[in-house]
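Folding follows sequence. Below is one example:
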Amino acid sequence: MPPRLEILYVEDHTIFADQVIKTLLGDHEVTLVPSLALAREAAAGFGHDLLLVDYDLEDGKGAELVRELRRKGFPGLIVAVSAHDEGNEALIRAGANAVCAKRDMPTLGRVLDDLGF
């Protein structure tokens, strides 16, 4: 059985995120936040094993968060989860480790396996 992960999921489409959590992440502890401001608060202590970060958020771009966390030394893994290739590319350039586009969410388990989870 894979380890129980502490996951911070930064996504402003809560109905979509709730489905992902229910169907793909039910064995993990997931904190869902819909904005950069709340993500900054939740990630401040580096208490998460993994971040799932969308690009387009109501109060900015997820790449801002990824850059800030990497600059501050966040050691965890970050997966870009935008619906748009351009957003995922920007998240990778900012420091994300991998991509699982929204259309590919059913393969999230494989992405996590590839990252060593």
The chain has a mean pLDDT of 93.
